[in-house]
Every structure is written in C-alpha cells, then in structure tokens.
Known about the structure:
Layout: H1 3-7, H2 12-53, H3 58-87, H4 91-108, H5 114-142, H6 148-156, H7 158-172, H8 177-198, H9 215-222, H10 229-249, H11 252-258, H12 268-297, H13 301-313, H14 317-320, H15 324-351, H16 359-388, H17 392-408
Helix pairs in contact: 2-3, 2-5, 2-6, 2-7, 2-8, 3-5, 3-16, 4-5, 4-8, 5-16, 6-12, 6-15, 7-8, 7-12, 10-15, 10-16, 10-17, 11-12, 12-15, 13-15, 13-17
Amino acid sequence: MTADELTEPRTPEALEAPRQRGLLLLLLVANSSMLAVYMGVGSVLLPTQIAAIDPANKVALLGLIGGISAVFATAFNPIAGALSDRSGRRNPWILGGALASLAGLAFLGSVRTALLVGIAWCLIQATMNVYQAAVTAVVPDRIPVAKRGTASAVVGLALPIGGTVGVVIASQTVGQVRTGYLVFGALAAGSALLLSAFFRDVPRSAPAPAPAVPMRQKIAAFLSALASHDFRWAFIGRALMVLGYFSVIGYQLYILDDHIELPAGLSPAAAMAVLTPVTMVAMAVSTVVGGVLSDRWNRRKVFVGVSAALAGLVMVVPVISPTWTGMIVFNALNGLAFGCFMAVDTALVTLVLPRAEDAARDLGVLNMANAGPQIIAPFVASAIVTAFGGYTPLFLVGGVLSLFGALAILPIRTVR
C-alpha cells in the first residue's frame, strides 16, 4: 500500500460497505430463525402433534389447520407491511412480532385438542408474518439496486440454513413437542433482539395522513401494485411456483410415513432430518450461484424460468422411484431448483416494485403469492390424497403447477 493510499480519505461508499455486510449477516440470522420456525414446526412438530391427537384423520386435519392458518399469514403480512411503512420504522414490528410468536408457540405446546392447535397455529402465523413483513422491507430500504441480487442471495441462504436447523431441532424434540416449540420461540425472539439492537431504524418520513376514503378505494389502493404489468406477472409466477412446491412439501412427513419405503429402523422424523440437509445444501449452492451470476450477467428471467421448470420436472422422481434413494434424489434436485428460484425471483421482484415509498406494502402484497397458495395447497393436497388414495397424483399436480410458474415469467418486460 502506498503513502497516498494510506492518506487518501475513504469514500462514503467504502465506509458503508462493512456496515452493509454486518446488516446482511443479521438479516440472514433473522430470516433463518423465521424459516426454522416455519420448517421445524410446520413440517415436523405440528404434523406430529396432529397425528398424536387424531391419527385416523391426520391428513384432513393438517389440511384444514394449514389452510385456515395461511389465511392469517396472507392477511397479516401486507397489513403489517403497510403499517410499518406508515410508522416509518421497522424494528418495533420485527421485535413485537417475534415476542408475540414466542408467546404463541408456548401456548401451542400446552394444548391437547385439534381445535386449540388450530387456534394457536393461526396466532403464530399472524405474528410471524408481522415479523416477516418488516424484515423483508429492510433490503429495499437499505441495499442499493446494484447489490440486490447479491443481497437476495445472502438472505436467500436463510432457507437452507433455517430449514436445516429447524428440522434438526424438531427431529430431536419430536418426543417433547412443548420443549421444541419453546426453543423455536426463543430462536425467533433472540434474532429479533440482535437485529434491533445493532441496527437502528433508518430515519424515514412516514406518509402524510391520507384523507378519509371509502373502503373499496382503500382496498384498490392497497392492491394497486397488481395494476403494474410486470409486478402482476411476477406475482402470478411466484404464486404458481409456491402452490406447486407446498402442495407436496407440506405433506412430506406423511409421504415418508405412508408412501416411501424407508430403510429398516429409520422413522419418518429421522428421515426428514437426513433429507432436509440434502435439500438445503443444494439450495445454498444454487442460491449463491444464481444470485451472484444474475448480478454479473444482469439477467434474472432466465434463472427464474429455468429453475421453476426444473422444479416441475423433478416431481416425477418419487413417482417413478418411491424409494429412499428416489427421495434423496428428489430432495437434492428440488433444492437446487427452489433455491435458485427464490434467490433470483426475490431480486427480480425488487426491480419491478411500482413505488419505492410503498415497498413494504407492495412486498406484503407480493407475499400473498407466498401465503395465498398455502391457503389452497393443504385443501387441494388433502383432497387429492383422499380422493385418489395415494400421493402419486399429488406429485404430478405439483409438477404441472411449477411448470406453469415458469411460463408466467416470460411476459415480464422491464427486467431481462
């Protein structure tokens, strides 16, 4: 290093870079804990608790509870996003949502009837989506457009990390679900405390109070982002992909129990603890590679479309080979596809937001494409399994939906 380099003042961009790296690390932790709750509780502990309460009707009950609770997720995410926009702050919503989720998880661990399990899970979905809406808005608030792909890739690692941690914790506490729920609640609350303590809210002006308008106009304004051509197609593509994915993944514990020939001595929960890291490592690789390459080549649509198509095609693997080996192959390929899709599609979405000042609200609307299909998926999946007496038709329907999701990316115009 030369003397000139030692004395040359650092630019604001250079001074800000380490802080952005620190912010991304804490966002990774915050998102990982959130996804650990969704994966560990939703995929293992909740189905286990339901099966223990009513084993004969477990498929229908999981579909009913999952569908109704997703209504709460769909509603609370955009509402919380709009309220955090209006308040001009994110941290109170992040911290409040996480602490409320801790209370909800403690309640879930103490109940013993299907009705109370459903009520508790609805409350958790609502409060976790308050948390999620505010955390998601931090990226468009704080990260420059040129770094959105890389930022989305780093934050996208939350899915493999959080998913793996969540399922491992759940598999270890499956015999003591109350303890497991408390661990997940503490994880979410702790990560929210870290993010709120180390990164204060960026000063931002809250929108001026709007004049009183009829409810119909409020709803129209709330959903106004869907009037944007590119945002609308991004919404449709995300919705189809998520519907295809969760129609199958939401029932993976029961699939392993009722459809797949597992090796002797391997329980479905233990099998989940093996398969999830396989999926998540694949997701981690494709998330990083997809996000970085999409920035380098300034291309988003090709990554999103190809990964959605791959997710559809790999659904045939468990149909052709309903074995332990087949499930390992399926989870690896599905992880590659879904990881790349979510990382690059998240970057794509931030580039088609109609108005920067409404970012959290519009991302909340987009999250309806995540949560909305999860309302439908449990009902559709349980109906298919019940009507046809097996899981093969479920894989095929999931594959077709993902392929349609790939086609929905093509009409987007303003992003390459």
